[in-house]
């Protein structure tokens, strides 16, 4: 079966310094893959590079395929139209738009054959958003913003959803709730790549783990085999010490 | 290159530049004007390169110096020392006023107000009879800095050249010292990270105002000498030509290079004097150079040359460090 | 002239001001960009209109179309040159580059249209009638009508509906807008094209009131600054109100004090606003980030 997402020889450099080097990475349909690693391991760099997106000015090389189609040369908005959807770090929503506008703005893209989540489905998933429909996004709590950011990404009808630290800054109870919602989204037409700092929470929901360290994949495998891998512990211990 | 060698090389080139027009007298006019306008451009350079703001009012400081000189010399018969003082005073006064108004403004609002100030100053110069109106002030007497028995006068470009050269040297030295001084360092901090500067105990507004006023001194001094060089002062000083010239001179070679504005001015005036295609085409060339320098050559001509040289001489090491991102 | 006459003149002048400024309002509101070549596009728009009428013998409405086309093209060229700077949000360089474009446009205008002042007489300027003691031409009426039409269109287009939402998303966070599937590059090109076309349209309508020279355009830039700042940076409705108010002020100042210093007075007004309510520039202060 064609993977929903595949990356080959993905390399990212900032001002001549290599920040990421990933020879191969793929997501099968229905997979939820967690990307873990210490701070600065290149997790955000990885998901951003898949969309050719960044707030800085990195140089990105390599190939990215979405459902077998090479999107490497495409601009970010075109990759979004091909089914890649990213929720960047910090629950990025449009603060000066209302919740409703944030969701409407990201309505199904023209010419897309993928089913986007309808507004009703979104409300079923995140009932709080429905209550807050006419509030400005800036008036939402951190957790609500994160939900809105995910909902906004779903409204684009993605085949692959990339989530960058959705749990950051959330209360522990909310982390579990958000990750459980993410788990429920995954299906034959939607795979998720989840960047997560909170290893314990991530292990509970993902199928597979990818461990990054200093811009390279250190280990990769099914979560059952990986959860006791000493390297994972080490990576996080190193982080805790630092 | 060691420091001593570097200094020697600089001294030798300065002497060569100074003596060059004596060998080719046709160069006196161009060299004098280059020196004067370069000094004016250094005023803008400090604000643009060190403070990071685009001031569009430096033509006003330049013109203020020239007008103060022209008016005092023709109507009060003032000597060149007196007009120098008046020119600097006029530049500082206007910069202080404008600086106080724009104290809390940043970026394009700051630029917009300085630009508006230039347009208003031009309207004043055109309409106010005290300033000579559209006719300006003509018949400015001979440049005379004589002290007692020491005769220091200049009746033409050849005689004015040493003074222009001296003013240029003083300016270069001052800009160099400024960049190494504490106020210079504070300016860079205010430019690069205003919040950090505030937390480091720097009074951001005071630094901005101080540097704005300091920069006006250079442009006003240039205006002072320019009034004698042309023997005429008029509202044409406010035209965008001077503004675009200063801006181009500052950015074309590369920002924060000590000799950048001088070389930039030399390129522009050199083209106009020796390779001129008429005013309109020259305007297209000057504006075009400004566009190309900023839009297509980030870092200016200097980095374009060094980049090219680096590409020719060595191939880049393919191994690059892996860093944390 | 009495007060009523000045007020009527001010109303017309105000609509002209608002029309001259609208391109920049949108440019600033949506793309956070500025254009110091604004006045020179105005100048070229006026010359193109004159040239199409006087030299090509085209009817005035067609000439207006020519001017709009020229302005649109200029906007596209400018944005194409500044694309890298725009994505890096390098506002300092953008300001200087647009000044450079202004200088180039002046040179080109001198080459193509020469240094002589030209007068454009439109069919509507021969139609005149008296209103409250003031003489008004058909041209004046057209300026008011077109200004109102453009503002109404923008208000409904930019502040509601999908287009407006896209505009506000790009204005707030262009990077995030890309992730929402928006082609930000196209938005930038459209906005700059609109800026050029709008100021050229304004020139085609307003410039016939005065002689056309290669060095006009500076007053228009000041007017635009004042309108944009007074109206609350980037606000379409605000800049309409500010334009009309400034027109009234200028007419009264010109009528009762001194016409030569009208733009100086407008500048004074700008300073006053800046000093009195610097807090009104939240958007301006953030523009480069």
Automatic annotation (TrEMBL), chain A:
SUPFAM superfamilies for the chain: P-loop containing nucleoside triphosphate hydrolases (SSF52540)
Molecular function per GO: ATP binding; ATP hydrolysis activity; branched-chain amino acid transmembrane transporter activity
UniProt name for this protein: ABC transporter ATP-binding protein
Residues passing through the membrane, by range: none
Coiled coil: none
Domain spans labelled ABC transporter: 5-239
Listed SMART domains: AAA
Keywords from the UniProt entry: Amino-acid transport, ATP-binding, Nucleotide-binding, Transport
Signal peptide limits: none
Entry similarity comment: Belongs to the ABC transporter superfamily.
GO biological process, one term: L-amino acid transport
Keyword field contains Transmembrane helix: no
Keyword ATP-binding set for record: yes
UniProtKB/TrEMBL annotation, chain B:
Record keywords, A-Z: Cell membrane, Membrane, Transmembrane, Transmembrane helix
Membrane topology of the entry: Multi-pass membrane protein
GO molecular function: branched-chain amino acid transmembrane transporter activity
Main location: membrane
This protein's GO CC annotations: plasma membrane
Record Pfam families: BPD_transp_2
InterPro entries: ABC_transp_permease, LivM-like
Highest taxon above the source species: Bacteria
Transmembrane domains' residue ranges: 7-24, 30-48, 55-74, 80-101, 108-128, 160-178, 209-228, 240-269, 281-305
Subcellular location field: Cell membrane
Protein name: Branched-chain amino acid ABC transporter permease
UniProtKB/TrEMBL annotation, chain C:
Classification of source organism: Bacteria, Pseudomonadati, Pseudomonadota, Alphaproteobacteria, Acetobacterales
Keyword DNA-binding: no
KW Cell cycle (keyword) present: no
Transmembrane segments: 12-34, 64-85, 92-114, 134-158, 187-206, 212-233
Record-stated family: Belongs to the binding-protein-dependent transport system permease family. LivHM subfamily.
Listed name of the protein: Branched-chain amino acid ABC transporter permease
UniProt keyword list: Amino-acid transport, Cell membrane, Membrane, Transmembrane, Transmembrane helix, Transport
GO cellular component terms attached to this protein's record: plasma membrane
Gene Ontology BP terms: amino acid transport
A UniProt-annotated Pfam family: BPD_transp_2
GO molecular function annotations of the record: transmembrane transporter activity
Localization (cell): Cell membrane
Membrane topology, as annotated: Multi-pass membrane protein
């Amino acid at each position: 079966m064609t993977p929903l997402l595949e990356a080959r020889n993905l390399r990212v450099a900032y001002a001549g310094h290599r920040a990421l080097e990933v020879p191969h990475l793929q997501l099968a349909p229905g997979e939820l893959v967690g990307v873990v690693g210490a701070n600065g391991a290149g997790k955000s760099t990885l998901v951003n590079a898949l969309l050719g997106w960044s707030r800085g000015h990195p140089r990105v090389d390599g190939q990215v395929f979405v459902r077998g189609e090479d999107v490497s040369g495409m601009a970010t908005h075109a990759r979004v139209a091909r089914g890649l959807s990213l929720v960047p770090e910090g629950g990025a929503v449009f603060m000066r738009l209302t919740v409703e506008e944030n969701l409407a703005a990201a309505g199904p893209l023209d010419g897309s054959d993928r089913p986007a989540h309808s507004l009703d489905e979104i409300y079923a998933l995140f009932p709080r958003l429905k209550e807050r429909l006419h509030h400005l996004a800036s008036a939402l709590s951190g957790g609500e913003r994160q939900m809105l950011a995910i909902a906004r990404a779903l409204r684009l009808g993605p085949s692959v959803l990339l989530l960058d630290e959705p749990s950051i800054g959330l209360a522990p109870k909310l982390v579990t709730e958000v990750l459980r919602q993410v788990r429920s989204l995954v299906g034959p037409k939607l795979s998720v790549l989840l960047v997560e700092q909170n290893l314990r929470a991530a292990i509970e929901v993902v199928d597979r783990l990818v461990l990054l360290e200093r811009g390279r994949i250190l280990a990769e495998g099914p979560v059952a085999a990986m959860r006791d891998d000493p390297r994972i512990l080490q990576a996080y211990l190193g982080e805790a010490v630092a | 290159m060691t420091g001593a060698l570097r200094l020697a090389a600089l001294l030798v080139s300065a002497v060569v530049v100074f003596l060059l027009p004596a060998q080719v007298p046709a160069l006196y006019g161009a060299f004098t004007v280059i020196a004067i306008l370069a000094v004016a451009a250094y005023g803008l350079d400090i604000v643009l390169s060190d403070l990071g703001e685009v001031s569009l009012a430096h033509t006003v400081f330049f013109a203020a110096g020239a007008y103060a000189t022209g008016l005092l010399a023709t109507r009060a018969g003032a000597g060149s020392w007196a007009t120098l003082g008046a020119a600097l005073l006029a530049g500082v006064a206007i910069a202080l006023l404008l600086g106080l108004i724009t104290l809390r403004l940043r970026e394009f609002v700051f630029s917009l107000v300085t630009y508006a100030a230039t347009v208003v100053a031009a309207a004043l110069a055109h309409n106010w009879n005290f300033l000579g109106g559209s006719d300006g002030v003509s018949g400015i007497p001979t440049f005379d800095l004589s002290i007692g028995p020491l005769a220091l006068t200049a009746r033409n470009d050849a005689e004015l050249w040493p003074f222009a050269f001296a003013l240029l040297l003083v300016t270069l030295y001052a800009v160099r010292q400024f960049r190494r001084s504490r106020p210079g360092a504070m300016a860079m901090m205010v430019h690069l990270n205003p919040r950090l500067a505030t937390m480091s105990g720097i009074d951001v507004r005071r630094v901005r105002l101080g540097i704005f006023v300091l920069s006006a001194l250079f442009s006003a001094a240039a205006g002072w000498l320019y009034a004698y060089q042309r023997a005429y002062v008029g509202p044409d000083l406010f035209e965008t030509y001077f503004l675009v010239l200063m801006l181009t001179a500052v950015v074309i070679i590369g920002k924060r290079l000590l000799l950048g504005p001088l070389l930039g001015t030399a390129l522009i005036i050199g083209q106009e004097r020796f390779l001129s295609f008429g005013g309109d085409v020259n305007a297209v060339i000057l504006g075009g150079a400004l566009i190309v320098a900023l839009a297509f050559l980030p870092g200016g001509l200097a980095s374009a040359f060094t980049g090219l040289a680096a590409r020719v001489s060595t191939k880049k090491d393919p191994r690059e460090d892996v860093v944390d991102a | 002239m009495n007060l009523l006459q000045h007020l009527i003149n001010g109303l017309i002048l105000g609509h002209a001001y608002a029309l001259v400024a609208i391109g920049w309002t949108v440019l600033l509101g949506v793309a956070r960009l500025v254009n110091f070549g604004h006045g020179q596009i105005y100048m070229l728009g006026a010359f193109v209109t004159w040239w199409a009428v006087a030299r090509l013998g085209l009817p005035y409405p067609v000439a207006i179309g020519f001017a709009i086309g020229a302005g649109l093209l200029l906007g596209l060229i400018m944005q194409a040159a500044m694309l890298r700077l725009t994505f890096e949000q390098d506002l300092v360089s953008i300001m200087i580059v647009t000044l450079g474009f202004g200088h180039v446009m002046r040179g080109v205008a001198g080459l193509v249209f020469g240094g002589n002042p030209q007068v454009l007489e439109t069919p509507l300027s021969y139609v005149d009638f008296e209103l409250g003691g003031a003489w008004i031409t058909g041209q004046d009426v057209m300026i008011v009508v077109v200004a109102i039409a453009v503002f109404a269109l923008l208000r409904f287009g930019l502040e509601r509906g999908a287009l407006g939402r896209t505009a506000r998303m790009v204005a707030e966070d262009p990077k995030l807008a890309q992730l929402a599937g928006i082609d930000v590059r196209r938005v930038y090109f459209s906005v700059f094209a609109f800026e050029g076309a709008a100021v050229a349209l304004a020139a085609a309508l307003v410039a016939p009131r005065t002689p056309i020279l290669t060095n006009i355009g500076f007053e228009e830039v000041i007017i635009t600054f004042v309108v944009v700042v007074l109206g609350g940076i980037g606000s379409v409705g605000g800049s309409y109100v500010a334009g009309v108010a400034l027109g009234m002020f200028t007419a009264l100042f010109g009528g009762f004090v001194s016409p030569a210093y009208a733009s100086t007075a407008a500048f004074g007004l700008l300073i006053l606003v800046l000093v009195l309510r610097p807090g009104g520039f939240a958007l301006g202060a953030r523009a480069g980030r």
